[in-house]
TrEMBL record:
Annotated SUPFAM superfamilies: Aminoacid dehydrogenase-like, N-terminal domain, NAD(P)-binding Rossmann-fold domains
Keywords assigned: Oxidoreductase
SMART domains: ELFV_dehydrog
InterPro entries: Aminoacid_DH-like_N_sf, Glu/Leu/Phe/Val/Trp_DH, Glu/Leu/Phe/Val/Trp_DH_C, Glu/Leu/Phe/Val/Trp_DH_dimer, Glu/Leu/Phe/Val_DH_AS, Glu_DH, NAD(P)-bd_dom_sf, NAD_bind_Glu_DH
Source taxon at top rank: Bacteria
PANTHER family attached to this UniProt entry: GLUTAMATE DEHYDROGENASE (PTHR11606), GLUTAMATE DEHYDROGENASE 1, MITOCHONDRIAL (PTHR11606:SF13)
Membership in a protein family: Belongs to the Glu/Leu/Phe/Val dehydrogenases family.
Keyword Oxidoreductase on entry: yes
Pfam families found in the cross-reference section: ELFV_dehydrog (PF00208), ELFV_dehydrog_N (PF02812)
UniProt source species: Rhizosaccharibacter radicis
Sequence ranges assigned to domain Glutamate/phenylalanine/leucine/valine/L-tryptophan dehydrogenase C-terminal in this UniProt record: 184-416
This protein's name: Glutamate dehydrogenase
């Protein structure tokens, strides 16, 4: 029996078992590698603007601390539960290990629709959540970051709440903060920039020239919008963009900068154009060279995988492709070059690591230095994954996860089991 359930955690468990079989990991070692070290569930009561009281459920899962502190985002979303948060923490562990970062994976969340909260209510909930987490987090224990439904402002509230409790400013307790509060330049754009950098590396291998390429981006939040802008900046024609409010498609190309301004003004893509409206059920299977799923988990199932018409699948979201879909893609051979999520969207946690290091040292870098170091780590990881995939004749996902799991396994074996 386990407290971790639901389709997202089951997906993470299936992926791990596949890798454990591939690496011949002993059965009695598997549970220690898969199941989180610690899970916290809290109630977060706040006063609503109308004078009533509401209670929201919050979670934080710390997967392992064998390499260093845990690291991971906090999402505010209606779908958040302990199983989803645990799965995201597990994936973050493999991601940090693959990138060579001194972290274990963590994730947190509150079950709430942040769009239904006023700014005052959002601040109250953010501060209450951090207040409840103070006994379990710290700059060398667990460092939070933004995720779906949270942003730089929420991180500033987190940091301030922890600092008030501590008695002095502790910038390094969270990353993804505003630059004015100890954040780093380049953090907000890091995930999207990394997605596009690696998509271009994959396109280069397929002899696809950016100026002749097309792209479809699902999700137009931070990751998706930056990805679309970066693609357009490299000469790629972005023919599709979607979010939770609308799907847009134009084979001639979308005005990405105009889309971003519209979303900043209205909160979503809805209302930008009725002529460009596309069928959400067919959106992911639109013909393109580069497909960037940058929304939520499990959007590409076996049915969608069989109908994909992209050459490069650059996974900006966490867990967008199910294990059943991976099997279909494997049957399709070299038709689709997959840049798996734990590699493709690692730019965010890499630059979060840079922010943490800068906060600890109180020595800050220029943005070109941040980007140079980011691309070096992403290129190194890309070469490791593609070389491992070719050597072992396995998929890019299997190669990426095998590298991550191996590193965590070695760390646990070296440290031993106490007592």
């Amino acid at each position: 029996m386990t407290i971790y359930s639901g389709p997202v955690f089951e997906m993470a468990r299936q992926q791990f078992q596949t890798i454990a079989d591939h690496l011949d990991i002993r059965e009695d070692e598997r549970d220690r590698l898969l199941y989180p070290k610690r899970a916290i569930a809290v109630s977060c009561p706040i006063h609503r603007d109308d004078g009533s009281m509401a209670v929201f459920q919050g979670y934080r899962v710390q997967h392992h601390l064998s390499i260093g502190a845990t690291k991971g985002g906090v999402r505010f979303a209606p779908t958040v539960d302990i199983g989803e948060v645990a799965a995201l923490a597990v994936w973050m562990s493999w991601k940090c290990a693959l990138a060579g970062l001194p972290y274990g994976g963590a994730k947190g969340g509150v079950t709430v629709n942040p769009l239904e909260l006023s700014v005052r209510e959002l601040e109250a909930l953010s501060r209450r959540y951090m207040q409840e987490m103070i006994p379990f987090v710290g700059p060398h224990i667990d460092i939070m970051a933004p995720d779906m439904g949270t942003n730089e402002q929420v991180m500033a509230w987190f940091m301030d709440t922890y600092s008030v409790h501590h008695g002095s400013t502790v910038n390094e307790i969270v990353t993804g903060k505003p630059v004015s509060s100890g954040g780093t330049v380049g953090r907000r754009e890091a995930t999207g920039r990394g997605v596009v950098h690696l998509a271009m590396r994959a396109a280069e291998r397929l002899n696809i020239r950016p100026t002749n390429a097309t792209a479809v981006v699902q999700g137009f939040g931070n990751v998706g919008s930056i990805s679309a802008l970066e693609l357009a900046g490299r000469g790629v024609r972005v023919v599709g963009a979607s979010d939770h409010t609308a799907c847009l498609h134009d084979p001639r190309g979308l005005p990405v900068a105009d889309l971003e301004r519209h979303v900043a003004r209205t909160g979503g893509l809805a209302g930008f154009s009725s002529e460009m409206a596309a069928d959400p059920k067919e959106f992911l299977t639109l013909p393109c060279d580069i497909l960037v799923p940058a929304a939520t988990e499990r959007v590409i199932d076996e049915s969608v995988a069989a109908r994909l018409r992209c050459r490069v699948l650059a996974e900006g979201a966490n867990g967008p492709t199910t294990p059943a879909a991976d099997a279909v893609l494997a049957e399709r051979g070299d038709e689709v070059f997959v840049v798996p999520d734990i590699l493709c969207n690692a730019g965010g946690v890499v630059v979060s690591y840079f922010e943490w290091v800068q906060d600890l040292q109180q020595l800050f870098w220029e943005e070109d230095e941040v980007n140079r170091r980011l691309m070096h780590i992403l290129d190194r990881s890309f070469e490791q994954v593609t070389s491992r995939a070719a050597r072992d004749k396995v998929s890019q996902r299997t190669a990426a996860m095998a590298i991550g799991v191996e590193k965590v396994q070695r760390a646990k074996q070296t440290r031993g089991l106490f007592p």
